[in-house]
Amino acid sequence: MKSLSIRLAGGVGETDERGRPLYGDDLLLLVNAEDHDVTFVLPDTLEPEQWKLAFDTADKLEIGMRWNPKALLHLPDRSLIVLRCGRNKAHSTIDLLDVSER
Fold it and tell me: Are 83 and 53 in contact (CB under 8 A)?
């Protein structure tokens, strides 16, 4: 099978000048290098959040679409998507480029 799922946790493990923990969004990279569609099961989130589409190489999905944890996501052949799941926005260390303005 030529598919891959990578989750990058947004927990930084650092604190700000007031000692509050810093967080970023969790990112989920889904890659399908197969010559046919592949179905992924989205992982759980730490908070009651949904996964939100940030990038899609196939341009078949609308940027900003959302999925619940454990949802099935069908990825077209030879494509890649990036999903993000927000954490504590008040103390986020990562302000990712909004690729929906491309």
Answer: yes
Residue at 87: amino acid letter: R
33: left (phi over 0), alpha (psi -120 to 50) or beta: alpha
Interatomic CA distance for residues 9 and 13, integer angstroms: 11
Give the other-Cβ count within 10 Å of 34's Cβ. Answer: 15
Q: Is residue 101 part of a domain?
A: no
3-class DSSP string for 24-67: CCEEEEEEECCCCCEEEECCCCCCCCCEEEEEECCCCCCCCCEE
CATH of the domain at 11: 2.60.40.1180
Q: What is the pLDDT of residue 83?
A: 96
**Global confidence as pTM:** 0.75
Give the whole-angstrom CA distance, residue 100 versus residue 92: 20
